[in-house]
């Protein structure tokens, strides 16, 4: 992957080739987004826009077939890369990513509502087949299921945009600033106002009786990222080794909701207490 980054930065032609080919191939558009983001991070908005335009050609082709994800992720990643280049703030990047995700979600529902409804119906049928006793409940809760499914799509777009920018930043760090991304991620900590706003929105959405359930995973995701940054930073400060992080991710896989809740709580506490600064460094 690092060799791919070097190839992308060799010249405009090489970057266009990678961005277009990756966007053409199914499920590899995130690599195209990372290539566009890398050029934007390294060479600025103008040069990045040339690569973006070429990458959007196959993305538009996919959108005409009902798949708007390549377009959303590629354009969103480019914007986030410019935000990161100008602010060097992952909190600001995440804030802008939330806005882009919400806007993309509304636009996709407007332009691609029929396809999304078909997906929801497919999910509903699958659940009814697997758990026949819930068929009546699922039929009565079709609106809740629609909102929950849309929330999953929105959260995937949010995660893929951020992942593409993270990959581009990692490439830039490896080539020009070794250890830079690690330091930035370890220092990620939200302001109290931003954390409180996220928590308030989560509480409002969960207590609305399902009407706003779509927005719960999107608002939880930034706090989970902040919790992971806290875990990575704390492990590095204490020189505990990667086995602790492996245990964390295995636990998250096996005990998903419980570990996610723990990360959200720790991230919220960290905004006020700054846990990392209170942890003594290893000798």
Written account of the structure:
It contains 15 helices and no strands. It has 283 residues and is mainly α. It has two domains: 1-109 and 153-186, no CATH class; 187-283, no CATH class. The two termini are 35 Å apart. The model has no long low-confidence stretch (mean pLDDT 87).
From the spread of the alpha carbons, the general shape counts as globular
How helix-rich are the residues, as a percent range? over 70%
> How many extended strands?
0
- The tally of helices reads 15
H/E order of the elements? HHHHHHHHHHHHHHH
Return the domain count: 2
Q: Tell me about the largest β-sheet.
A: none
Q: How far is the N terminus from the C terminus?
A: 35 Å
Nearest-integer average pLDDT: 87
Give the percentage of residues in beta strands: under 5%
Category by helix and strand content: mainly alpha
Concise overview:
The chain contains 15 helices and no strands. It has helices spanning 2-8, 12-24, 29-43, 45-64, 69-87, 90-111, 113-130, 135-140, 142-176, 180-186, 192-206, 216-238, 242-254, 256-273, 275-278.
Keywords summarizing the entry:
283 residues; mainly alpha; 83% helix
SSE layout and pairing:
Blueprint: H1 2-8, H2 12-24, H3 29-43, H4 45-64, H5 69-87, H6 90-111, H7 113-130, H8 135-140, H9 142-176, H10 180-186, H11 192-206, H12 216-238, H13 242-254, H14 256-273, H15 275-278
